[in-house]
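During the reporting period the student researcher (J.K.) took over the structure-prediction task from the postdoctoral fellow and processed the backlog of single-chain submissions. One of the processed entries is reproduced below for the supervisory committee.
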Amino acid sequence: HKHRNYRAVPVSKATLVKTGSEKMYCSVCGMTLPMFYKTNHSATDENGVVKQYCSIHCLVEDALSHKLEDMKVVDNTTL
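J.K. obtained the following structure tokens:
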């Protein structure tokens, strides 16, 4: 049988905090956010832009070149 991706959730259950045409995609690598939702993080950069990441790896990658604040993580129990 097909192996289920535990990180994935239907788009209707994902809280997507970015705006515009890139709303569904990681701010760093471009991965589809609902596909990796249970490992999502968000933060606001020094310009007030809210970003969302598919993983802690991408958040840290962005933090190397941007001052990030108001970092949040997805609660896997309540989504």
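The committee noted the following: The first strand starts at residue 41 and ends at 44.
J.K. will present the remaining backlog at the next meeting.
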